[in-house]
């Protein structure tokens, strides 16, 4: 759990630092630092749903291609 937490802190620091360097604004950097992970979480949910469908489709193709045992 501590590895995950330290990665989260690193991610927030990176988001803040990069945004601050690009904009020079502490307020914009702060907003992006907290908005980006929220958007990323939502996108991750839909990304996983999509890949679940892709994997199910691939499994169905493999089942169709396997010779039927009598």
From TrEMBL:
Superkingdom, taxonomy of origin: Bacteria
Limits of the DUF2061 domain: 1-52
InterPro entries: DUF2061_membrane
Name of this protein: Putative membrane protein
